[in-house]
Design a protein that fits this description.
Elements (H helix, E strand, L loop, with lengths): L1 H15 L7 E6 L4 H15 L9 E6 L10 E4 L1 H10 L4 E9 L5 E2 L1 E2 L1 E6 L15 E3 L6 H13 L4 H4 L2 E3 L4 H10 L4 E5 L2 H7 L8 E3 L21 E2 L2 E4 L6 H12 L6 H6 L1 E5 L5 H9 L3 E3 L6 E3 L6 H4 L6 E3 L2 H4 L2 H4 L10 E2 L3 E3 L3 E5 L2 E3 L17 E4 L10 E3 L4 E3 L1
Parallel strand pairs: 1-2, 1-3, 8-9, 8-10
Antiparallel strand pairs: 3-13, 4-5, 4-13, 4-14, 6-12, 7-10, 7-11, 9-18, 15-16, 17-19, 20-21, 20-22, 23-24
Helix pairs in contact: 3-10
Length: about 400
């Protein structure tokens, strides 16, 4: 009994000596989700972590505006924004990965995308069959429902941005299902779990669809129970700003989150099962680089992400060997091809073209290097047009070679 008493006093003394650098810690949460997570990041952390410091500390949630974590100590971020924040600021690091509720203790710690068509569509059986077809997506800014499936198509030699007849954006999961079934769309992309949710609500009959490139194993090697067409990536991350003086607080926060189970009121409110040891987001970063969403300044080496407020055109990119048409050209291509764009949507009709970085046009068409570009007679004007498909700001230098002389201009 005496030893137990001494031990208890020792523990209390250690807790009393803990002092945090400040009294209030701010947690960034998306505005649309803030009410769902207040029980976790305010009520729960204030009750469990706050009293472990003297004086007690508190936690307050704040709205995450356009993906900016400036002024925050912690942040709950989606997969794409996690990779972006880590790319732009090396100090921010995940301390937990969210496991969304799969019912009871079961949960989904990874996400992917589903590429689907009608079950009776005999023309589309493989990803490459989507060439010259109409595809519905939600938004080109979205990681799970656009970037992931887009890259999967590229890996299968189907360049959606150059090969699909039309890409319709602003197509939600319900509309995607209904319009694929009706034949208004040949195929659509949705996030994993969306089709199953529609089925539970009685909106969808999934026997009427066909998943392209189906998979039943996640990228981590675990069985994946939902419909899936692509590699999988980790769910939302809870990140710490990395300030050295706040590391003890971050450790306590991480431990507290790991102690939550699916029956806890905080988990029920946030619709998750538990928190896991943080996943690696390196392959998310790599994907964002591959699709041109993260860019690196060639001079400063600083990395930046395209913002949430970017226009659809600003988020578009083309794979190597392909180049994006001008903004003006992109938005008139569907009309020129007589392909109707439904009201309320933005439509893309082959916004990328296969071409060389620089193209020279002579009197007989595109002129290849060291080939004859123009036939003329002495004193006759020669007109040659040069197209910079990459639209770089580089200074271009061209040599004009004639039969007996070379002029630089």
């Amino acid at each position: 009994m005496f030893l137990q008493f001494i031990c208890a006093v020792f523990i209390l003394d250690v807790s009393a000596d803990r002092r945090a650098p400040k009294s209030v810690y701010r947690v960034a949460v998306y505005d649309r989700e803030r009410d769902d997570y207040i029980p976790t990041f305010e009520t729960y952390l204030n009750e469990v972590v706050g009293p472990k410091f003297n004086p007690p500390i508190s936690f307050q949630t704040g709205d995450l505006l356009e993906g900016s974590v400036q002024g925050f100590d912690f942040a709950l971020l989606d997969t794409r924004t996690t990779a972006c924040v880590m790319a732009e600021s090396s100090s921010w690091t995940p301390i937990a990965t969210l496991c969304e509720s799969g019912g009871g203790d079961a949960c989904d710690s990874e996400l992917g995308a589903v590429i689907f068509t009608r079950a009776n569509n005999t023309e589309v059986n493989k990803l490459k069959d989507l060439k010259n077809k109409k595809i519905g997506v939600y938004k080109t800014q979205y990681f799970q429902s656009f970037m992931v499936p887009n890259l999967e198509l590229i890996k299968n030699r189907m360049i959606m941005m150059a090969d699909a007849a039309q890409i319709q954006t602003r197509v939600g999961s319900t509309s995607a299902y209904r319009e694929v079934i009706s034949g208004d769309l040949d195929a659509a992309f949705v996030s994993t779990g969306k089709l199953e949710s529609l089925e539970r609500l009685g909106i969808a009959d999934l026997s009427l669809i066909k998943v392209l490139s189906p998979k039943d194993v996640s990228s981590s090697g675990t069985n994946f129970t939902e419909r899936l067409s692509t590699p999988t990536y980790p769910q939302k991350a809870f990140l710490f700003s990395g300030r050295r003086e706040d590391e003890l607080v971050a450790v306590e926060v991480s431990d507290a989150l790991m102690a939550i189970n699916y029956s806890h009121p905080a988990a029920i409110s946030g619709e998750y099962s538990k928190w896991l040891i943080p996943s690696s987001y390196n392959h998310v970063h790599q994907l964002l680089e591959d699709v041109g969403y993260i860019t690196t300044n060639s001079t400063t080496k600083a990395r930046t992400c395209k913002g949430w407020d970017s226009s659809t055109y600003e988020t578009l990119s083309c794979p190597e060997g392909y180049f994006l048409h001008s903004n003006e050209t992109v938005w008139k291509q569907c009309r020129e091809k007589n392909i109707t764009c439904p009201d309320g949507r933005e439509c893309l009709c082959k916004p990328c073209k296969k071409a060389k970085k620089h193209e020279v046009q002579g009197d007989s068409g595109i002129c290849s290097k060291m080939n004859v570009c123009y036939n003329t007679t002495q004193l006759e004007p020669v007109k040659v047009s040069v197209t910079d498909n990459a639209r770089t700001t580089d200074t271009l230098r061209y040599d004009f070679h004639a039969t007996s002389s070379v002029e630089n201009f």
